[in-house]
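Notebook, student rotation project (T.W.).
Task set for the rotation: take a protein with a known small-molecule partner, predict the structure of the complex, and write up what can be learned from the model alone. Partner molecule chosen: flavin-adenine dinucleotide. Sequence and SMILES entered below by T.W., checked by me.
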Amino acid sequence: MGKKTAIIAEHHNGVLSPVTYELLTLAKRIQEIEAGDICFFILGADTKKPAQTLSTRTGLPVHAVCIPGLAQYNGALYKKALSVLFTQTPFDYILAPHSSSGMDYAPALSMAFGGSCITSVEDVVKTDGGLCFIRYPVWRQLSAKLMADTYPLVLTLQPGALKAFSPEEKTQGPNQVYSQGPIERSVLDITDHSMVYAGTKASPSEGSDLARADVIVSGGRGIREAQNYKYIEMLARLFPRSATGGSRPICDYKWIPYGKQVGITGATVSPKLYIACGISGAPQHVEGMKGAGFIVAVNTDPDAPVFQIADVCIVEDLMEFIPFFIETFKKKRGKEDERNDLGESFLA
Ligand SMILES: Cc1cc2nc3c(=O)[nH]c(=O)nc-3n(C[C@H](O)[C@H](O)[C@H](O)COP(=O)(O)OP(=O)(O)OC[C@H]3O[C@@H](n4cnc5c(N)ncnc54)[C@H](O)[C@@H]3O)c2cc1C
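Predicted structure of the complex:
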């Protein structure tokens, strides 16, 4: 009998998160190495619509579990419900997103079954010893391959690490009539008052300049210290309709406000031009800016992952490159106020 994989779908108010389809990509990679079945579990007070979407888009079985008190994510209820469900039907692999909720319930779930938990996974490979899951600790300076010795194995997948499964890749292959996956609906009447939903706070980036800008210049940890963000601002000033952004660490360091953070836990942007300076290109950042029309990256490391998605790759120290670029531009144009010239000509 093959290995069984359960995917815990993530949704907010009935709208599925993109990571749910990325989890399916991971499940299929596992399935290519170890044949087996895949199905979805979706939990909530009302799962009718997202369950229908999942079954139609993927053709896979969906267990839609209605939990009356679960209108919003509640860690205590999730942990209780999943323990009940996976006791009824055991699985070898349980896949969850590495989101604030997945990070919360996944380790508890593996503990409940005496299994293993590998968090923040970005891919899977086959080795002589079995499946190895890849993650990148220490700001992507290292990669680690991890194996489990006890099962079930609960995995959390970094959002943006894998390409999302698209409906065109449905299991039956091209040129075939697809059927919907079966939906099994059930009601789980459980309660737990140890956690209560306190409300949702809008992201500070909502309504910020990032959403409207044609050009975004972003800085990362490569700027080394807060005062060097001036280089990012200098470069942005060359362009009309521009805004400055940044990676999460420099927001965490309080070098720039969180309203400027680009990425899965910040703003998702799609300007005509995105210039990433001193940003390594972690999936959590890339996920927020990959919709840009044209991407330029400035980085001292020629192997920086950001270069894999950049249209123009500049291997330079940003503190030298940006002033040199601005000076060269000024000389070439021979004008004091270069702002509109460069920007408009690029954006034209
Ligand atoms: C749940 C979760 C959510 C996350 N959400 C986000 C998010 O929304 N947005 C986000 O950005 N991150 C997010 N992260 C963090 C993310 O994983 C990365 O750690 C982060 O994006 C790395 O930021 P960075 O590229 O600025 O830093 P680093 O990875 O440290 O990269 C710095 C880069 O600068 C280069 N560099 C150094 N000096 C120079 C120089 N003088 N000139 C040019 N280049 C130089 C280096 O070669 C390196 O590539 C999240 C992480 C988790 C776990």
